[in-house]
Amino acid sequence: MTRRGSYAKGVAKREEILSVALDVVARRGYAGASVREIAEAVGLSQAGLLHYFDSKGELFTAILEKRDEVDYAGNTGDFLDDLVRVVAHNAEVPGLVRLFAQLSLEAADPQHPAHDFFRDRYAFLRETLTERIRAGQADGSLRAALDPERTATLIIAATDGLQAQFLLDPSTDMAAELAGFLADLRAS
After folding, report:
1. pLDDT tens column, 45-68
2. What is the rounded end-to-end Cα distance, in angstroms, of the chain?
3. Burial class (CB in 10 A: 0-12, 13-18, 19+), 123
4. Which end of the chain is flanked by fewer CB atoms within 10 Å, N or C?
């Protein structure tokens, strides 16, 4: 019985760490957010924090997983509108956008701790978007002429490309640009 309580406390502490880390990284960015700062913010030593995560790479990958969980918790069911909402929120947390962009490049190395996360995330997004595009075609809300797989890949490319442009020029309105692109997918 003690184990179960200890396990539950460990899970709760890990969630607390990730929630605090989301805030720290959103404010300070990937380069500015240290393991020490995150540990101090949750009342742990660096060694104590690394009890919950094997490395900084694993911690930052878990932060991105938590970001996705939080971002998609408020989905309304209209995947195009939900995507624009998430991208609009990203403009408010440039540190997380920078973390995503930096880790996605580093994760091209199969040995990187975030490699599997990004590979699986992109596969999941392509599959999910493809299914939702097909459903939109079936209910008449999306243009029938769209190639669902290609369109899904292009939506992902557009969102990632807009994030890169935003990081280089924060005046880039990612949500407005994406909304304009996605409007072209809707049936007239």
Report:
1. 988 898 898 888 889 899 999 989
2. 60
3. exposed
4. C
